[in-house]
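REQUEST ID: PR-0412
SUBMITTED BY: lab tech R.K.
PRIORITY: routine
TASK: structure prediction, single protein chain
INPUT:
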Amino acid sequence: MQATLTSTDFKFPGQQSLYHGKVRDVYNIDDTLLVMVATDRISAFDVVLPKGIPFKGQVLNQIAAYFLDATAAEIPNWKLATPDPMVTVGKKAEGFRVEMIIRGYLTGSAWREYAAGVREICGVKLPEGMRENQKFPEPIITPTTKADAGHDENISREEIIAQGIVSAEDYEVMERYTRRLFEIGTKMAADKGLILVDTKYEFGKIADQVILIDEIHTPDSSRYFYADGYQERFEKGEPQRQLSKEFVRQWLIENGFMGKPGQKVPEMTDEICESISARYIELYEHVTGQKFVPADSADLDRRIETNVLDCLNNLR
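STATUS: complete
OUTPUT:
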């Protein structure tokens, strides 16, 4: 199996701190810049799985860069440079402790809740009689609180504002940006024969400006269906052909793991890891319309360190 990058511990000039997320390692440089390394770690049900996925970090980073560049003219974002296939360098913002999840279709965790009888998610009332993978009359926003560890929690717009997590003014901007980004992403997906089903966005603030941060429209943050055959499969009640991380969750569920106490992650064989890698690459090529070119993985740490140092020398 190809080499994978599952942890980093670089020491960059001006480095103030290092944050290890579920997938990304984030380096604070001079409290003004962030170096975000997309590792090959993979998480599901808020648990980091024990093995890395070849080229996953490159796929995530390059898809995110593709969409950040495509939307920058309308929605301000944090990105300044992508000095390495697995790294983005950008402006440091004060992140809001909320993830803006927007759903165009009833699927995934929302469907599981709906099937169990829930008819309101994050303060949004859902119509009766909906079926799995059915399109909403209009996309719904179902925010979650952003947790450093453990599970993110659903929260309503009203609760976010009442608790002072985000001001009413800033939340209005985040909501407007969320809907516009989803519109753009939906059109870009449709142009490639895909349906952008649901996704999440994160925002932060620099001075008085709300900006988009982190990744967008990647398989870790988004779900895509193939447009071809969607309606026929929906009418027959058949599973949709999709490009997302949902297939990883389904594999885990089928093997008795949903992140609950006492459950054990099933064995991740090289074959399983390679198959997950192939799905990520497939999504990259469909979403971007570009051929995936695997970067040299002979010495990932040295390659990343060299590229980031060159970039910081130019930016600082």
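NOTES: The chain has a mean pLDDT of 94.
REVIEWED BY: pending
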